[in-house]
Amino acid sequence: SQQGEEDPQALSIQEGENATMNCSYKTSINNLQWYRQNSGRGLVHLILIRSNEREKHSGRLRVTLDTSKKSSSLLITASRAADTASYFCATDWSNDMRFGAGTRLTVKP
Amino acid sequence: KAGVTQTPRYLIKTRGQQVTLSCSPISGHRSVSWYQQTPGQGLQFLFEYFSETQRNKGNFPGRFSGRQFSNSRSEMNVSTLELGDSALYLCASSLEVQNEKLFFGSGTQLSVL
Question: Are A40 and B109 an interchain contact pair (Cβ–Cβ within 8 Å)?
């Protein structure tokens, strides 16, 4: 079963614009992670935020976590065509990682 | 350091056959997890191995099994293949604990005809 759910399912933007993806989860967590997957390949870890953190930055990525609402958001600033990929949130659930269904991001040049 | 290596990259089998997939984790990583990815179900957790022991298991039938060797390399086996087993099978490794940062292989794309 999936623990996290991303929203929207698909997002299409122009190069240079910002992209925001949201993730909601059901149970309490120790950490929440975001991963990127290019078509048909393995997932690449982007960022991990712990339950006692509210915001984290990594390059053009900004992640927020609201444990009271059981939600997280991933912001990609100044998007590039190379950011085109699927993005997944993952939460630790019963000692293993569970992934959401993902947001498909398309960045048009 | 070499990344997570999965073999083979592509596999075509027929219903009723069995298949074995292999995963070599990053050197020093002791936890290996397996996931099944399909367009309809997304990423589904299969199982996790740590120090040759299955530590966690997802909600899959007994036809799906795995093991881990003393060098942390892992294999998963699917017996009596069904059409619905067609999927991308992903292996991920981590240092100690499965719910920390995962490093994924490129996956094995299994097609069952």
Answer: yes
Chain B hits for A1, CB-CB cut-off 8 Å, are 59
Instruction: For residue B56, give the nearest of A30, A44, A96 by CB distance.
Output: A96
Q: Are A106 and A38 in contact (CB under 8 A)?
A: no
Distance in angstroms between the alpha carbons of the first and the last residue of chain A: 36
Which residues in chain B touch residue A95, judged by CB atoms under 8 angstroms apart?
55-56, 98-99
CA atoms in the 13 A half-sphere facing the CB of A46:
27
Confidence at residue A94, expressed as pLDDT on a 0 to 100 scale: 66
d(CA B21, CA B77): 6
pLDDT band at A41 (very low <50, low <70, confident <90, very high): confident
List of E strands, A26-84: 31-37, 43-50, 55-58, 61-66, 71-76
**Residue A78 to residues A34, A65, A82, A85, B112: CA-CA distances in angstroms?**
18, 21, 11, 15, 42
**Does the pLDDT value for residue A18 go beyond 60?**
yes
Place A58 in a pLDDT band, splitting at 50, 70 and 90.
very high
**Looking at the partner chain, which of A35, A41, A97 has a beta carbon nearest the beta carbon of B107?**
A41
Only one residue has tokens 């959401």, namely A100
Looking at residue A93, its pLDDT comes to 67
Asked if A42 contacts A27 with a C-beta cutoff of 8 angstroms, the reply is: no
